[in-house]
Design brief:
- With 362 residues, the protein is of the alpha/beta class.
- The chain has a six-stranded parallel β-sheet, with helices on both faces. A three-stranded parallel β-sheet has the order 6-7-8. A two-stranded antiparallel sheet has the order 9-11.
- The protein has twelve helices and eleven strands.
- Helix 5 packs across helix 12 (323-337) and helix 8 packs across helix 9 (220-235).
């Protein structure tokens, strides 16, 4: 399928190619009615403005892209802040409808490393893109126009991006996302097996029969892991919670109200299964501040297997997903598409393994 060019948009909109270029690069220089006509034509044709590939006979850039989100997307740290830590601390004291530091996926670095290593092996350059605001459609479109394929990390603002139209122009890989309707490749770990390993370990090794879930339902991994836990508990004949103990999406103690109330009433379950390692870090901090001992008073587990879990006291029992392999697979799939979009969605599940440490009582 041929990539739509600036000439196609110009013909459809009845303007010159220079006007199309100005519409995307210098919209202030184009009359509003003309700009709207060009944008409407571009949307209809699924046009992605290319920054450096127009003149290449193969229509390829030799570059693959990786797109993520600024963890302080609503309030980037400026040069006038005294330091990063003070800026982050200030944010924790205010009300923002945005991701917190702990909702930013720390596994990004490991996925990125795998992506870059595979690109290097395949003689591909890497372009990293970062959303600077929640509806950064222009930003991701610009990045897409510079690359032969793009991998996108999940975020609460992903649905605001023009991924559906981009999927028809270049190959797109959605990381840590379940298969959707867009023609893209979706890569995730085997969440169901990971949760089953955790539950079976808690029940069979530690005799646990009262388990609660802590974590966000605002993303695919969180929802699937909670559903898997409920299914496994039902299979084992144990009590099945209707909802998470805390549907926490932020990394401050104020967002663990139910957990704090449960501690105050002395009604903690035997084990807390956290949606991610990052959530587990915050849960451990809440428990420590309340004088609750882990694992003596309650067992705590995570999911993802990020390296920081080894450094905790107690060290975190978790499920390790192959983050480097996820990045490598994304780069390989994009490279093999050679700029050709997928015609339908494809799903890839990567294996996981249980990592037993001290926080579960082992």
């Amino acid at each position: 399928m041929r990539r739509t060019t600036v000439y196609d948009v110009a013909k459809e909109a009845g303007v010159s190619t220079a006007t199309v270029s100005f519409t995307f690069r210098r919209p202030d220089k184009v009359k509003p009615e003309t700009r709207e006509r060009v944008l409407a034509a571009a949307k209809m044709l699924d046009y992605v403005p290319s920054a450096n590939a127009r003149g290449l006979a193969r229509g390829q850039t030799g570059v693959l892209g990786l797109y993520s989100f600024d963890m302080l997307i609503e309030r980037p740290i400026g040069d006038d802040d005294e330091d990063d830590e003070s800026a982050i601390a200030d944010m924790a004291d205010e009300e923002f409808d945005c991701p917190s530091v702990l909702s930013y996926p720390l596994y990004v670095d490991e996925v990125q490393r795998g992506f870059e290593l595979e690109c290097r092996r395949r003689n591909r350059a890497v372009l990293l893109g970062t959303a600077v605001r929640r509806d950064d459609g222009a930003g991701i479109t610009d990045v897409a126009g510079r690359v032969d394929g793009l991998a996108v990390f999940p975020n609460k603002f992903t649905d605001t991006l023009p991924l559906t139209s981009l999927c028809r122009s270049i190959p797109i890989v959605r990381l840590s996302e379940g298969a959707g309707t867009d023609p893209a490749a979706y890569i995730t770990c085997d969440n169901v097996r990971g949760v089953n390993l955790l539950i079976d370990h808690l029940v069979d090794v530690h005799g646990v029969h009262d388990i609660q879930f802590v974590g966000s339902m605002g993303n695919y991994d969180g929802r699937q892991r909670f559903a898997a836990m409920r299914s496994r508990l039902k299979t084992r004949g144990l009590r099945v919670p209707e909802r998470p103990l805390d549907d926490s999406t932020a990394g401050t103690h104020e967002h663990f109200v139910t957990l704090c109330e449960t501690i105050d009433m002395g009604r903690l379950p035997q084990a807390l299964v956290c949606a991610t390692d990052q959530t587990a870090f915050e849960v451990l901090a809440v428990l420590r501040d309340a004088g609750v001992r882990v694992p003596q008073d309650v067992l705590v587990t995570g999911f993802d297997g990020i390296l920081a879990g080894r450094m905790l006291d107690p060290a975190l029992t978790t499920v390790r997903q192959p983050m480097g392999a996820m990045g490598q697979l994304a780069a390989r799939l994009l490279d093999e598409r050679a700029g050709e979009p997928w015609k339908e969605s494809e799903q890839y599940h990567l294996p996981v393994r249980l990592v037993v440490r001290n926080s579960c009582g082992c």
